Amino acid sequence: MSRKLDDLNPAFRPKAVELVARCIEAGIPVMIVDTIRTPEEHAANLVSGTSKTKHSKHLDGLAIDIAPYETWQAHGPDKLNWDAGKPGAVKEPWGTMGRIGEGLGLRWGGRWRDPFDPGHFEL
């Protein structure tokens, strides 16, 4: 698993950089949790239930997972402990992050029901 913006697909990288920058400008420091994954890492995520899609956009460098730094600092990468609300009732600052990402034309995992993934953004 990588957290490097440079590992993202060149078609997606500018949007990911702008997403992070706009979150920071909105007063939401974020941690980059995941950019690109290997097939082996993705297979492990499927087994653990962290991912439910056979071909994640993370495999192609077309997705990024971010979290408010405060949340990351408190819970690390354990998404099960992130209190982001639920579909239809997303808590702040997650909702602001989602609006920023959607404003950039990205798909936001906070709109999904299963899996609900408010830190996920993809092209």
Folded structure, characterized:
This protein has 4 helices and 6 strands, in the order αβαβαββαββ. β3 (85-86) and β4 (89-90) form a beta hairpin. It has a 4-stranded antiparallel sheet. A two-stranded antiparallel ribbon has the order 3-4. It has 123 residues and is an alpha+beta fold. The longest helix is centred in the N-terminal third of the chain and has 13 residues, at 13-25. The model has no long low-confidence stretch (mean pLDDT 93). The radius of gyration is 13 Å and the shape is globular. It has helices at residues 13-25, 39-48, 69-75, 94-103, and strands at 30-34, 63-68, 85-86, 89-90, 107-108, 120-122.
Topology of this structure?
Blueprint: H1 13-25, E1 30-34, H2 39-48, E2 63-68, H3 69-75, E3 85-86, E4 89-90, H4 94-103, E5 107-108, E6 120-122
Antiparallel strand pairs: 1-2, 2-6, 3-4, 5-6
Radius of gyration, taken over Cα atoms and rounded to an integer in Å: 13 Å
**For the residues shown, what is the average pLDDT?**
93
Series of secondary-structure elements, N-terminal to C-terminal = HEHEHEEHEE
Give the number of helices: 4
Helix fraction by DSSP (H/I, runs of at least 4): 25-40%
Largest pleated sheet: 4 strands, antiparallel
Termini separation (Å)? Answer: 19 Å
The fraction of residues in strands falls at 15-25%
